């Protein structure tokens, strides 16, 4: 009888150990999945924060300066296109893998719009460049003429609208994916 008791005890111990081993593996997999989700969540929060911070700074530096005219706003905006393009390139390089496709598409469209504006400004500058003994010189009045066009007004409005749209998409996506209860 003792032999039978010992046999059942060992069998039960073996079954419990096997169950614990399987269960531990499942718990470790869940912990790993949670850590991965936490890393992605933190990176996503960082992306939303950085984009919003840049956007708010851009609005402050361009719009909230109390510029005296639309032309002043356009000039200030044109002066910052390289800064905006550089930010978008770095932002997409760092965060594109974790962002949704529609957000990445809008970021790419925004970069393209900045390129179009810069290209048009360069074409205008080259058209009115004059040769001097030191090379080419762009007359300040010609650049001012380009900046005062309604086309630049549309570029500025369109680009700021796209920044706002991406900012709202990022915040909305964060709320929908991670912060819903």
Describe the structure.
- Helices cover 82% and strands 4% of the residues.
- The protein has helices at residues 2-62, 70-79, 81-95, 101-127, 140-147, 150-177, and strands spanning 129-132, 135-138.
- Helix 3 (81-95) packs antiparallel against helix 4.
Features:
181 residues, mainly alpha, two-stranded antiparallel sheet, 6 helices, 82% helix
Query: What is the CA-based Rg, rounded?
Result: 29 Å
Give the neighbour order of strands across the main sheet: 1-2
Shape: rod-shaped
Beginning-to-end CA distance, first to last residue: 57 Å
Order of helices and strands: HHHHEEHH
Low-confidence stretches: 131-140
Structural class: mainly alpha
Number of helices: 6
| SS elements, strand count | 2
Proportion of residues in helical segments: over 70%
- Give a short account of the largest sheet: 2 strands, antiparallel
Mean pLDDT: 77
Sheet-strand content, in percent, reads under 5%
